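To: structure subgroup
Subject: Chain for Friday's discussion

All,

I'm putting the inputs and outputs inline so they're searchable in the archive.
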Amino acid sequence: MAAANDLRKGMCIRYNGNAAIVLEVMHRTPGNLRAFVQVIIRYIGTGKSADVRFGSTDKVELVDVQRTNLEFSYKDHQGYHFMDPDSYETVTFDEEMVSEVKDYLVENLKVEILYVEGRAGTIELPASVCLKVTESAEGVRGDSANNVMKPATLETGKVVNVPLFIKEGELVKIDTRTGTYMGRA
């Protein structure tokens, strides 16, 4: 058992008898009221999310989590295929499991899979990925105000705002936590 104040993103807890991954943690101290911890969790079994509030001194049951490093190989009609770099075994995940991270998956990308009680829970991406710009409008001459951005489509289909000087075919670095442009790769 751990105190609710000790919860962090990526931890796994048991709530209402079901294992759940902690997606977000916010510590709140409103005015003259008692402090509480507001947590967004996703149940492993159903994939549904919930917003839960714990008192700061409440106890929470932690669940054991196993982490495995895999590399993304390819996507086909059966799902998304990942390979274990040590044993060369292939693991396939369906669209539902990969839905949050599919915009960042490129060939040979190393990811970390969290297994909770023998079932895959979530896919953790690196902090940033390098993606190729496949479609981008030309910058308008004379449009030189500070921080002018334009939409660009990346090789995975994701659309992000990039500076005017980015052209088609260039590699850009994207923050996987916020989905924003970080710079040229």
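Points worth raising on Friday:
The chain has a mean pLDDT of 87.
The first helix runs from residue 95 to 98.

D.
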